[in-house]
Amino acid sequence: MPASVRVPSSAGRGGPLRPGLPRLRTVLTVAGTALVVQRALRRRIRRSPLWPLPALEQPISGRGRDAARAGGRDRDPTPPAPGRPGALRLRVAERTEVADGVVALRLEGERLPAWEPGAHLDLVLPSGAVRQYSLCGEPADAVRADGGSYTLAVRLIGDGRGGSREVHEALRAGTTVEVRGPRNRFPLEDRPAYLFVAGGIGITPILPMVRRAEAAGVPWRLLYAGRSRASMPFLAEVEKLAGGGAGAAGAGGARLTVVAEDVDGRPDLAAALADAPPHTAVYCCGPEPLMDAVADLLPAGPAGPTLHTERFAPAAGAAGGANGAADDEAFEVELRRTGRTVTVPAGTSVLRAIREQALPDLAYSCEEGFCGTCQQRVLAGEVDHRDALLTDAERDDSLLICVSRARRGSPLVLDL
């Protein structure tokens, strides 16, 4: 039986001994407990910003959790979840001028995701702008045991939107830069023969394809056009791949046609396409007039060539644009995971409305419906698709919020 404790009566007559001590102990205990709980909650919310909703292995949309961390120098990049590119912080290990107005950047990191010919990266510039650039190095370089790397090349566009100028002026050896991807909307399909058509900087996605076809022993030809030989990146490498240069007799000369427009004029696209073997896959990347001309001249028929193109600018006349159309209606968008509802006025894009009213850091790039950075999953509602990128299958459950809208003003529900 526990012994009882008797408090001397004198303590009550003369007032309690140290009257503030028990109260101080209580305050310190409560404060300490609150501090522990606060720190635990901060750690929990940092792991999942939408807590107590379920955490996701990789954010489905917007800027990844890791992208907001300052510096990031002490974090090793990790591969993204399958099917959804993550954000990586890479170091510019080498910067080389590979043609007039063209710089190649070699970006190094650890445990880089693998890629295939035709893939590109989303490059997040120091200003926060996002631009897409094709990977033009060797896919094997990304998965080397001693550290991986990606290589991309960027031509300075004087009258562009400013992304290429920022690359040329701000990204130097030693700079740390954020990338997302790789993503591939221009994959090299297995075919019995290939005809590659590249215009200027359009050689960047084509070059890894040529290497792959050469290594596999699949017949290929390349028509490479540019303003001048000095302006054409990687020209020496493609001449070497072709076996002696464009002017050489034999296999090399037959496989490669180089057209420097300041000397040779316009390329003869009709002749190149007419000589394509049956079932040839034609891969074309370059200025819009070049790609349109190839499409117009493509021979028809069941055994005719199939055309694959990649654009980093919207096609002329394509629907879209951040300001919408004259007959647009206002509508509401529910952001299911965020728990917010956004009103999208007529003449304002879904992207702009969400960034202004709910998610200011939501990632985007082109605002013209061709890059895919702002693609979001649709949970409910009828979409008026105005992009130049998504396939019919992708349009079944997603949209590009920079240009597409709700049909007839009906509400949308997005997985955001």
UniProtKB/TrEMBL annotation:
For this protein, the record's PANTHER family field holds:
CARNITINE MONOOXYGENASE REDUCTASE SUBUNIT (PTHR47354:SF1), NADH OXIDOREDUCTASE HCR (PTHR47354)
Regions annotated as coiled coil: none
**Stretches with biased composition (Basic and acidic residues):** 63-77
Cofactors, names only: FAD
Task: Using the UniProt annotation, give all residue ranges assigned to the region (Disordered).
Answer: 1-21, 56-86
Domain 2Fe-2S ferredoxin-type residues, every copy: 331-416
Which species does the entry assign this protein to?
Streptomyces lunalinharesii
User: What PROSITE patterns would the database entry show?
Assistant: 2FE2S_FER_1 (PS00197), 2FE2S_FER_2 (PS51085), FAD_FR (PS51384)
The entry's keywords: 2Fe-2S, Flavoprotein, Iron, Iron-sulfur, Metal-binding, Oxidoreductase
Occurrences of domain FAD-binding FR-type (ranges)? 85-189
Name of protein: PDR/VanB family oxidoreductase
